[in-house]
Structure formats: C-alpha cells, structure tokens
Amino acid sequence: MTGFFKGLGTAMVTPFTADGKVNYDAFAKMTEYQIAGGADMLLVLGTTGEPPTMTVDEKVALMQFAAETAAGRVKLVFGCGSNSTAHAVEGARLAEELGADGLLAVTPYYNKCTQRGIVEYYRTICAATKLPVIAYNVPPRTGVNILPATAEELASIPNMAGIKEACGNMEQICETMRRVRGKMDVYSGDDNLNVPILAIGGAGLISVVSNIAPKECRQVYEYMAAGDLARANELEDRLLPLIDACFTEFNPIPVKYGLNAIGLNAGLPRAPLTELEEAHKKVMDEALAHAGIKRVC
Fold first, then answer.
1. Is residue 74 situated within a structural domain?
2. Catalytic residue positions?
3. Is residue 35 part of a domain?
C-alpha cells in the first residue's frame, strides 16, 4: 500500500527524569514542539526512544499518554519490532489497542535470519493487525539487511505501507525504490540522505534530527516536494553539521544532549548508554549555533 503518510515523521526520544523515570511533562512539551514545527507523524518507541531499556508497563503507559497528548493532530506510529516474531506480534496487537495509526517494525536483530525469514516475519506481523506496517531496515544496528528483491516481495503484502531505509547504501536504496515504486512507500531513515532519497521518490523522512529541528526538516521536505532543489540543498547544507553532531555517538545519546541544550528536558539516556562526552558536547553546541536553532524554553 502507498500513501499512509507523507512529509516529516520524528523518531521521538523518551525523556527521563533525574531519577530515571519517564518524564511525561517533557514528552508533552516535545509533542507540542513537533506539531508546531510541522511534523506529520510521531514515531514512539523506535530506536531513538530506547525501548530495550523500558518495561512493558512503561511502554504501555507511554503509548497511552502519546495517544492522549497527540489527540489526533498527527499520525502516531508505535514501534513493535523484536528479534522474536511472537513478541513482535504481541507488540503489534497491543499498539493497535492503544491507539496507534500505524506500526514500525525493525527487522529481527541478533538472530540474523535469512531473507525468507524476513519476509515471514513481516507477513506474520501484518496478518496480526489491520494497521499499516512500515519495515525498518538498519543493518548497522541489527546485522540484517532487507535486500531490494525482498523489499519487492514485502510490497505485495496488503497492509505493508513502506520501508524506512537506513542501510546507508544509496545504490541499494535506488534499486529498492525501482522495485517497490507505486506498491509501497520508501522513507529516509538516515538524515544525511534525506535529500537524495526524496529526490528518487521517497515519500518522506523518519528523522532523528527533527527532534531538535522539526521546522527545518519539514522545510527540506517541502522544498523537495516543490522541486526546489537549490533551496533544499541550501538548507540541508546548514543542517549537515547538526546531523553529524547527532551521530558522534550512538543514537540517542547526542540528540538528548541537543534537546537539553535548547530547553526541552530529555534527561540522560538509560544504561548502558552514557552521557555525551565533553568533546562531543562542544560539537553539538557549535552545530546548533550553525543551524540557527534557538532555545525553546
């Protein structure tokens, strides 16, 4: 299927308090910041949201709160991926019950299944829900790569809405696009490839950097949708140092520091992730200034 969403989707961080609890007040402020900045979709409990360190009760409470806070103003996509197909199905059903508009399912990780295993994994998830499902291809994290021929097979599943591409290989992404065009959507999952993926027909961005700069990321999409490559490149050039700064360490370590720096209280990541190192804090501070990102509160 195509057309589930177009534009900007933000892979939301999960803010924590000083004593390590989910900070719902901060999440509400971040939600308003995203909506004001033009986000079309919020992804909750994706990689950026640190779900591996959260309990089931915490995830349920956050999904409920996200649905109440968003109140239908943007699409909500909840992460449900797992290295166990059975657990992913449970997560998909739960997310549907709690008000998701769609699901993001990362490929099975660590187990390193075959391409056939990938197809069966997504086929089983899609059969368990009526919601649109977006596959998430991020081999550097998972050790598993959705190859273009596999993506083409996934596109035949009726409620398979798209693929979030973060493989980092533009040649592969072009071939995937060729094979799935008109059958399911492709979304940029690498902020440094936003412009080229949109240029070949990407339906939108599922961004980490837009936690900090939603207005600017949305503007990149709008310029590309209007065919204004010159302005898109000009803005993306301004954002690239910020994009680089958001990945000096493993996501979401840097983006949480960046959010704290602009007044949105993300707190620290949960162990085993650690606070951003001092040298990288300086990089982020300089990148925020270069991008012209102002303090929110």
1. yes
2. 136, 164
3. yes
Our count of domains for the chain comes to 1
Residue carrying structure tokens 């719902």: 24
Tell me whether residue 90 is in a domain: yes
* pLDDT block averages, 10 residues each, the chain of length 297: 97 96 98 98 97 96 98 97 96 96 97 96 98 97 96 98 97 98 98 97 98 98 97 97 97 98 97 97 97 86
Whether 158 is in a domain gets the answer: yes
Dist. CA 4–CA 93, nearest whole Å:
19
Token digits for 138? Answer: 């991020």
Domain membership of residue 189 as a residue range = 7-226
User: At a CB cut-off of 8 Å and minimum separation 6, what does 87 contact?
Assistant: none
Q: Kindly report the CATH number assigned to the domain that includes residue 13.
A: 3.20.20.70
Beta carbons of 29 and 297 less than 8 angstroms apart: yes
> What are phi and psi for residue 293, nearest 5 degrees?
-80, 120
Q: What are phi and psi of 200, to 5 degrees?
A: -95, 5
For helices 278-291 and 229-245, angle between their N-to-C axes, nearest 10 degrees: 160
Give the C-alpha separation, 65 to 146, whole Å.
32
Amino acid at residue number 294: K
The reported pLDDT for the residue numbered 217 is 98
Residue pLDDT, tens place only, 102-131: 999 999 999 999 999 999 999 999 999 999
